[in-house]
Every structure is written in structure tokens, then in C-alpha cells.
Amino acid sequence: QVQLVESGGGLAQAGGSLTLSCAASGSISSINRMAWYRQAPGKQRDMVTRRDMVARITTGGDTYIEDSVKGRFTISRDNAKNTVYLQMNSLRPEDTAVYYCHAEVAVLYRNNYDNYWGQGTQVTVSS
Fold first, then answer.
1. Do the beta carbons of residue 55 and residue 75 sit within 8 Å?
2. How far apart are alpha carbons 53 and 64 in whole angstroms?
3. Which of 44, 102, 117, 120 could serve as a FRET partner for 30 with CA atoms 20 to 30 Å apart?
4. How far apart are the C-alpha atoms of 24 and 31, rounded to whole Å?
5. Measuring CA to CA, how many Å separate 121 from each of 66, 99, 104?
6. Which has the closest alpha carbon to 53: 108, 100, 4?
7. How do residues 26-81 score in pLDDT, each as one tens digit?
8. What is d(CA 103, CA 101) in angstroms, rounded to the nearest whole number?
9. Dist. CA 37–CA 12, nearest whole Å
């Protein structure tokens, strides 16, 4: 099958930078769009928060950046390595979240794209 493995999360100070990477591997025929989502911690215990898209990139390099991170975050991909990156600059405490990689992947011998998720990587920004 297909695995998405994220790396690069961690702790940063406000104003700092982090770069996330997500590598797809397995029985891959092609990858369509790749994206980063994030899910912030709930303010109440057991509160389930929404997973929101942060940025998305097509195979051809067209990008979408969510307004709250526009000008600070950049998404890119290396198609030869089946890898997507998220460069995060000028980090703010409100960027604290678990960041998830998402990809639309066609596996070998199938014509349709299926959705795959990484396991998530924690990003914590201190003030």
C-alpha cells in the first residue's frame, strides 16, 4: 500500500522557522494533489477540533495557501522523490497544532486516486 511519513516538527519560538517534510512510499503509480492540514488542540478536554487545510500543491506546482498563513508559509514538492514540504516562517503561537500530510495517490494497477494521510507531526510555537 501507501505510506506517508512526516518529519520536521518540533518546538519553535515565535518568529522562528520550521520545515516539514512528507515522503510518500509504497506501490505508487502517480500522485495528484498533496497538501498540509493542521489540527489545533481543543481548549476543553476531549474536545474534537477541526482539521483545516493549510496549503495544497498540484503536480504541476500550482499552490493554494490559506489566508492566515499567506506570506509566511510556502508549500513545495519534489515529484521525483514523492515528497512535499512546508516551509513555515514567522511562526506564531496560534500556529501550534498537529500538522498532517495528505496526498491523492493512484496505486499500481488502479486508475482512481485515493486519499492518504500521514500520522501527523506536532508543531509547538512558544511566545
1. yes
2. 9
3. 120
4. 9
5. 19, 5, 19
6. 100
7. 999 999 999 999 998 776 665 666 788 999 999 999 999 999 999 999 999 999 99
8. 7
9. 19
- CA distance linking residue 91 with residue 55, whole number of Å: 15
CA–CA dist 58, 114 (Å, integer) = 15
3-state secondary structure 68-120: HHCCCEEEEEEHHHCEEEEEECCCCHHHCEEEEEEEEEEECCCCCCEEEECCC
3 state SS of 40? coil
Letter for the amino acid at 83? T
Give yes or no for residue 1 having a pLDDT over 90.
no
Q: Which residues pair with 38 in a beta bridge?
A: 52, 99
The single residue listed with the C-alpha cell 512546508 is 86
